[in-house]
């Protein structure tokens, strides 16, 4: 079984963990990107491997806070971790104070 774009958009994720990155850093790989200080946001539930490397391209994070208008957040990068959790990275400027347990939807940009 694999995860499709539609499955990503129809899953109700929650923030499982927040990790602060206080200093700038750089991604690995043949195309290295410089990243500013910011936040790693880990989501649950875990998902099976993606149906293609591009199934989530263009999706954005939308926190679902009761009583507030939905805001779509632009992340710097994201990936599926080995344990199946999705991990998004937000710069300080883009990060809106999310809380562990908060519901997150993935939406078209």
Descriptive notes:
The protein is mainly beta and 109 residues long. The chain has one domain (5-108). Helix content is 6%, strand content 39%. It has 1 helix and 8 strands, in the order αββββββββ. It has one helix spanning 5-10, and strands spanning 13-21, 25-26, 34-35, 38-44, 59-64, 77-80, 86-91, 103-108. It has a 6-stranded antiparallel β-sheet. A hairpin with a 5-residue loop joins β6 (77-80) and β7 (86-91). The mean pLDDT is 89.
Structural class: mainly beta
Report Rg: 14 Å
Low-confidence stretches: none
Distance between the termini: 26 Å
**Main sheet summary:** 6 strands, antiparallel
Tally of distinct domains: 1
Mean pLDDT: 89
Estimate percent helicity.
under 10%
The coarse overall form would be globular
Assembly type of the chains comes to single chain
Task: Write the element-wise H/E pattern from the N-terminal end onward.
Answer: HEEEEEEEE
Strand order of the largest sheet: 5-8-1-4-7-6
> Beta-strand percentage?
35-45%
User: How many strands appear in the DSSP assignment?
Assistant: 8
* Total count of helical runs of at least 4 residues: 1
